[in-house]
Amino acid sequence: MNETWVAGAETRFPLSHLPYGVFSRESEPPRVGVAVGDSVLDLGALAGQGLLEPVADFSAPALNSFMAAGPDAWRATRARLVELLTTEEERTGVAEALVEADAVRLHLPFAVADYVDFYSSRAHAENLGRLFRPGSDPLTPNWLHLPIGYHGRAGTVVVSGTPVVRPSGQIRPPDAERPVFRPSARLDIELELGFVVGVGSELGSPVDADAAPQHLFGAVLVNDWSARDIQSWEYQPLGPFLGKSFATSIAAWVTPLEALEPFRVPAVRQDPEPLPHLRAAEPTVFDLDLEVGLAAAGMREFEAVSRTSARNLYWTVEQQVAHLTSNGTNLRTGDLLASGTISGPEPGARGSFIELSWNGAEPVKLGDGRRRTFLEDGDEVVLRGRTAGAGGFALGDVRGAILPARGDG
Ligand code: CA
After folding, report:
1. Do domains 20-107 and 115-403 have the same CATH topology?
2. Is 124 a catalytic residue?
3. CA of 301 to the centre of ligand 1 (A)
C-alpha cells in the first residue's frame, strides 16, 4: 500500500486501518470521521466537496446510515479514501477536510440496536466454572455445543473515556442470611472484542456462518463492567441483570472488518464438531494481541496487568451470528455482539479481575507495591488491542475511570 501524506500515520492510525467514528469540534454538531495519522478526516466535508460518493449520511451523528449501506459501499468508500490520502490530485481539498485529532471530542460511534454478550473463551468459562462450581466439570454441558450468550442493555453502552459510577445494588454478604443494599465492593472489568452489525437480516430467516461476514461492519474493543457481588446474588435463574447493565464501554473508533481480514487465522479445532447449523467452511478468529492496563488511583501511568489474544476464542463471531439467528431472530443495523471475556490458559492472560485475583484470594500486585482484587474508586482501566506481527495497527482503545457510588447506597 502506498504511503499517505498525512502526518503521524507511521505511529498512529496508519493507512491500513482507517477506522470510522463520530467526532465534533467545539460547538459544532457531531459527524462521521475517519482516523488517519494525527488527524480526523471529515467525511461529510469530503462529500460536500464532491470528493466522496455520498453512499450514506456522513453528516449524521452516528455511523448507522453508513453501516446499513452494505459491503459494496464500505469497500468503495475505503478504496476512495486510500486514493484521496495517497495521491496529490485532490490534496488541497482533502487537507481542508482534515481536523487535528487532539482538537476533537469523540462520541459513541453508532446507535446500539441490540447488545448481545457471549461467553466464547474456553479458558474464561473454565476459570469461572472452577471458581463457582468446584469439584464439578468446569464447563456446563451445553458449552461445547453452542456459543452461550445473553441480551445486555443497549442503552448503557458508552464511549471510551466515559467515567463509570460505582453501582449500588442488592448484595448478600458471605455467611449472611439476608441481602443488603450497598455499593458494589467487587467491581470488575471484562476484556472483550465486539463486532458491529451493518446490514440487518430478515425476520424468520437464519444467517449461516459463511454468510455472516456480509452483515458485519467492523469491530471494537469492549469493556463489559461487572459488579460481581450484585451478579452472584441475582443471576440465578435468569442470568445477569443489574450486575452488568450499569455500563458497557466501547472504543470510539470502529475498525472496518476489511482492515481485519489479513489477520484471520484458523480457529481451534472444535471437538465435538458443532451441529450443522453452526458449522463454517473454514472457521477463523482474529490474531489480535490484547492487554488490560490499570492506573491505580493516584497513579498517572497504566501498567499492564494482563496480556492475552483474540485467538483464545473458541466460538467465532460467524458462529455467534449463526446461533443468534438460528431461531429466526433477525440482525439489525447497530447490533453489538461481544465475545465474552477473553482469557488465555496462562494466569497472566486472564481478562477479568475475578480471574486475575482468583476471586479475591490472590491479589494482583502492582508496581508500587499496592495490591488489587477488584477496582477501587479513582482507578482507571484501559483495554488495548493490536494486530499481531509487524506492520499492523492498534485498535481504538477503551478507557474508563471509576467514580464513587452516589446516593445513600
Ligand atoms: Ca461479558
Report:
1. no
2. yes
3. 26
Q: Which residues contact 174 (CB under 8 A, 6 or more apart)?
A: none
Task: Please tell us whether the domain made up of 20-107 is placed in CATH 2.30.30.230.
Answer: yes
Domain ranges of the chain: 20-107, 115-403
In DSSP terms, 199 is beta-bridged to: none
Distance CA 32, CA 53 (A): 14
* Annotated catalytic residue within 17, 107, 124, 151: 124
Strands 255-256 and 187-188: unpaired
Q: b/e string for 274-294 if b means 16 or more Cβ within 10 A? A: beeebbbeebbbbbbbbbbbb
The CATH architecture to which 115-403 belongs is Alpha-Beta Complex (3.90)
pLDDT one-digit tens code per residue, 191-234: 999 999 999 999 999 999 999 999 999 999 999 999 999 999 99
Contact (CB, 8 A) for 154 and 113: yes
Distance CA 374, CA 260 (A): 33
**Separation of CA 178 and ligand 1 centre (Å):** 27
Q: What is the mean pLDDT of residues 259-267?
A: 97
Average pLDDT of span 271-285: 97
